[in-house]
């Protein structure tokens, strides 16, 4: 009996082309399948480098059409790029007095309205006027650095900001009014009657329900809020999230925090931890609105909700793999506030930068399929094009790299990458535990002295 030849990606591609030609596969479905093709991901290569900034590039973002890229840098400038040609369309001073951390186009403004936040705590708006003139105005202020902002999907007026002061603000450009929604506090200390602020690094809005937004920062929890529960006269306490998300083994861990958040188009929340991994939470595995970190039994109790339209079932977080978050391993996230995101028309892939200067791409199932050499130092930002198979990356270096599937050969995952990742993660584990057990190893040295012995960056360069 003849054995069937295994189906290849080329076979599937030929069938898809034939089905499209005979009308069996709509053009949109064909384009989506092509854009999510693993072959294209394996053929990513640097298409162009954009070089005009004079400092680290901390933020990159495409406009809705995908033809313009906006970037912000430690040089406090905002640059609008025609990324395909590499030409600068416009460059201007942001008005910030410190490093720009985020810059985004407001939707439906003909790309003439840009909002920014920075290390000076300021939240600003830049309006592009006739003949390239730019007017910048101060909208709000945080006490401490303001790392991220999130724009309400489809709104040319409303966005949110968060900062290291733990404050979340709601801003409406029609009135230029900033409303202080809440200040985020640690759960453990709050139960003791203390008010310890969570320094917020990330904020994201659910694209399928813009009433829901998540924030995260210097502790282990991602918190989900529903803006409909806020009373605009300030008559209620909006501090209480409707749900918390955290892997069970990280609850109560004082050494981890969260640097990046992203919602998929399928109501999933992607969470990137420093000194740990990336996790994908579905809406049914939250910890509920009032988790009790001191009690493991509480992990299976409580119920949250993903908004009035989609009630969240009772949490069943336990050792059952079916309700555990999907994990993504291999990258290194220790040094900076690193973002995370989805890639593909249906969020088929997860992408992240790394302290080792590489870009990591996983299938949503958790399989690592691509590691790309990007920078000599840290890669912080990975931005997906809104509809094409294109990525933009930036980090500690002064340039922006545009990635397209232009390589003639499919990349192969480096054979040593698993070994490198294993060694790095073991050293991270040792480093964290040395803070507790230093006296056993060497009573004459401080924890930091011993931590400094392990030069993780130098180690990765040996492989």
Automatic annotation (TrEMBL):
The keyword Repeat applies. SMART domains: WD40 (SM00320). The keyword Repeat applies. WD repeats lie at residues 50-91. Pfam families: WD40. SUPFAM superfamilies: WD40 repeat-like (SSF50978). Keywords: Repeat, WD repeat. InterPro entries: DCAF8 (IPR045151), WD40/YVTN_repeat-like_dom_sf (IPR015943), WD40_repeat_dom_sf (IPR036322), WD40_rpt (IPR001680). One of its GO terms (cellular component) is Cul4-RING E3 ubiquitin ligase complex. This is DDB1- and CUL4-associated factor 8. It comes from Vitis rotundifolia (Muscadine grape).
């Amino acid at each position: 009996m003849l054995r069937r030849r295994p189906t290849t990606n080329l076979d599937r591609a030929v069938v898809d082309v034939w089905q499209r030609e005979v009308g069996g596969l709509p053009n949109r479905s064909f384009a989506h399948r092509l854009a999510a093709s693993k072959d294209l991901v394996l053929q990513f290569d640097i298409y162009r480098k954009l070089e005009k900034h004079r400092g680290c590039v901390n933020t990159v973002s495409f406009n809705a059409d995908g033809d313009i890229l906006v970037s912000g840098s430690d040089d406090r400038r905002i640059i609008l790029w025609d990324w395909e040609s590499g030409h600068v369309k416009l460059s201007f001073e942001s008005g910030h007095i410190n490093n720009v951390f985020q810059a985004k186009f407001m939707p439906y403004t003909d790309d003439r309205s840009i909002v920014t936040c920075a290390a000076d705590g300021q939240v600003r708006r830049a309006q592009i006027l006739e003949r390239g003139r730019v007017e910048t105005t101060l909208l709000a202020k945080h006490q401490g650095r303001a790392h991220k902002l999130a724009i309400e999907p489809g709104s040319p007026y409303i966005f949110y900001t968060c900062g290291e002061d733990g404050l979340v603000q709601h801003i409406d450009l029609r009135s230029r009014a900033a409303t202080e929604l809440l200040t985020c506090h640690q759960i453990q200390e709050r139960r003791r009657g203390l008010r310890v602020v969570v320094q917020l690094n990330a904020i994201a809005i659910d694209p399928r329900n813009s009433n829901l937004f998540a924030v995260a920062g210097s502790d282990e929890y991602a918190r989900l809020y529903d803006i409909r529960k806020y009373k605009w006269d300030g008559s209620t306490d909006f501090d209480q999230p409707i749900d918390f998300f955290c892997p069970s083994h990280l609850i109560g861990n004082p050494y981890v925090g969260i640097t990046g958040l992203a919602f998929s188009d399928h109501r999933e929340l992607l969470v990137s931890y420093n000194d740990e991994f990336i996790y994908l939470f579905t809406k049914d595995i939250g910890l509920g609105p009032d988790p009790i970190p001191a009690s493991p039994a509480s992990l299976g109790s409580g119920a949250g909700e993903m908004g009035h339209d989609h009630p969240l079932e009772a949490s069943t977080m336990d050792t059952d793999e079916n309700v555990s978050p999907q994990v993504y391993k291999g990258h290194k996230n220790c040094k900076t506030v690193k973002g995370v995101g989805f890639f593909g028309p249906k969020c088929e892939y997860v992408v992240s930068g790394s302290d080792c200067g590489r870009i990591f791409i996983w299938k949503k199932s958790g399989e690592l399929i691509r590691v790309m050499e990007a920078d000599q130092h840290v890669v912080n930002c990975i931005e997906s094009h809104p509809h094409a198979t294109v990525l933009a990356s930036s980090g500690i270096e002064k340039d922006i790299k545009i990635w397209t599937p232009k390589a003639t050969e499919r990349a192969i995952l480096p054979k040593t990458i698993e070994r490198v990742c294993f060694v790095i993660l073991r050293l991270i584990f040792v480093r964290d535990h040395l803070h507790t057990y230093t006296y056993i190893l060497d009573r004459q040295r401080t924890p930091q002295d011993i931590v400094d012995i392990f030069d993780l960056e130098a180690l990765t360069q040996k492989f």
